[in-house]
Amino acid sequence: MNWYLTVLKKYAQFSGRSRRSEIWWFILFNIIVTIVLSIIDNVTGTTNASGYGILGTIYALAVLLPSIAVGVRRLHDTGKTGWWILIGLVPFVGWIVLIVFYCIDSEPGTNQYGPNPKGVG
After folding, report:
1. pLDDT tens across the length of the chain (121 residues)
2. Domain tally for the chain?
3. What is the value of pTM for the model shown?
4. d(Cα 85, Cα 70) in Å, to the nearest integer?
5. Cα(61)–Cα(22) distance, rounded to whole angstroms?
6. Contact 81, 112 (CB under 8 A)
7. Using H for helix, E for strand and C for coil, what is the string for the chain?
8. Who's near 67: CB < 8 A, 6+ residues apart?
9. Which parts of the chain span the membrane according to its record (predicted)?
10. What is the CA radius of gyration of the chain?
11. What range defines the domain where residue 11 resides?
12. Cα–chain-centroid distance for residue 9?
């Protein structure tokens, strides 16, 4: 839960670096919340004809900017520019590339985006 709140506190902070655990815990928590909201939307009947629920849509819009920001900070941690996040717009291949980038270990020491968030040099 702490990693999720850390990402929300840095709501639109695109500078700096983020550890692997920060992004993966954030993604896991988002998946859990999305499933719960989807169930609530289905039970209460607040889904539209295409199957999208009101609560899920509101939540997705609320975490859109923090999701992009933590992704950019994670790319910075691996020494890549944040613009690489746009490769996620390419279906399937782009997502795989981003997952690989998110799994790569931090660049040791300080890089052009800031000090190592692990605190090791």
Report:
1. 788 899 999 999 999 999 999 999 999 999 999 999 999 998 998 888 777 889 999 999 999 999 999 999 999 999 999 999 999 999 999 999 999 999 999 988 899 999 998 876 5
2. 1
3. 0.90
4. 10
5. 20
6. no
7. CHHHHHHHHCCCCCCCCCCHHHHHHHHHHHHHHHHHHHHHHHHHCCECCCCCEHHHHHHHHHCHHHHHHHHHHHHHHCCCCHHHHHHHHCCCHHHHHHHHHHHCCCCCCCECCECCCCCCC
8. 26, 30
9. 23-40, 52-71, 83-102
10. 16
11. 2-103
12. 13
Strand-pairing partners, residue 53, are 47
Whether residue 117 is contained in a domain is answered as no
The count of residues in the chain is 121
In a domain, 40, yes or no: yes
Angle at 24 between CA 90 and CA 84, to 5 degrees: 35
Tokens, residue 16: 């700096």
Q: Is residue 84 part of a domain?
A: yes
Comparing CA positions, the residue from 56, 70, 59 lying closest to residue 18 is: 70
